[in-house]
């Protein structure tokens, strides 16, 4: 029997959040905050850009001033192929930017923490690495990068000083396709892809995924796809995923049989409404909302999640509770990132070639 749930929709008053828009001359495929010790003055963001007129792609590092916010280009790097996924991780002395591409290559850029200059680059593009598009990547600190692709391959890349070495974790030989990946610990990570399925991997137990969530719980929607996964650093046993038809759900490894729904028009809970009915391009745990609702948190409750969607919503969602619209646009919001140093601050990219910076109160 379906459990009816009333979802409360709430839009933040326009005066409560400060919103700044920065038009760009190129299409923005992804964007990420770059951790910086000088964040009290200027902060940095990385943009993966594509110019359809010249069919060229690049990564640009921009500084974001805190007073009278504006973006200023600091450095750039040209990619041989369009960028499909972008991740940033801080090492003790450098910032590491990882970018995968449509042609199956992985690029790693080392940047200076103070100047945001790109100091060195390394890449892996050999024929046996991936065949075609690498859909998802994630960095395990500055030591390892996991990559997943349409070809059904899962690879682990060792980030060395002079070269990149990789080992094949799994090869689906084209019978499966992966679209998202996220580290949970130095040994474990989760993947997702077609059919709303999720897989849990443990390097200490080779041979394949050690646990799986099958997507046959979605009535008539098993053709959907998981686009994004996030795992909270203090609750590695719970991963959240976003995908087709506005679907956002959590998978708790302690109770593996059924997902926990946060939203989605295809969810079994027929009384559940959804702010978005299109593709959920990205999900991240929203630590800012968690800090506002500490008294409501428990070990069994899914922490608040932020999402961006094809139908132009940037919103925070709580389990069985309200959905707070942070930003509403007339075009797709393709990517976003929450500043871990200042969780009230969010950047997102619009299909209409703009970066939006939102500072929540």
Q: What gross morphology would you assign?
A: globular
User: How many whole angstroms does the radius of gyration measure?
Assistant: 19 Å
* Share in helix: under 10%
The pLDDT mean sits at: 88
Say how many strands there are. Answer: 29
Explain the layout of strands and helices.
Elements: E1 9-11, E2 18-23, E3 27-34, E4 42-51, E5 56-65, E6 71-79, E7 83-90, E8 94-101, E9 106-112, E10 118-124, E11 134-140, E12 144-149, E13 153-159, E14 164-171, E15 178-183, E16 188-193, E17 198-202, E18 211-213, E19 226-232, E20 235-243, E21 248-252, E22 260-263, E23 280-285, H1 287-292, E24 305-309, E25 313-317, E26 323-328, E27 333-338, E28 345-350, E29 354-359
Parallel strand pairs: 1-26
Antiparallel strand pairs: 2-29, 3-4, 4-5, 5-6, 7-8, 8-9, 9-10, 11-12, 12-13, 13-14, 15-16, 16-17, 17-18, 19-20, 20-21, 21-22, 23-24, 24-25, 25-26, 27-28, 28-29
GO cellular component, one term: nuclear pore outer ring
Protein name: Nuclear pore complex protein NUP43
Keywords: Nucleus, Repeat, WD repeat
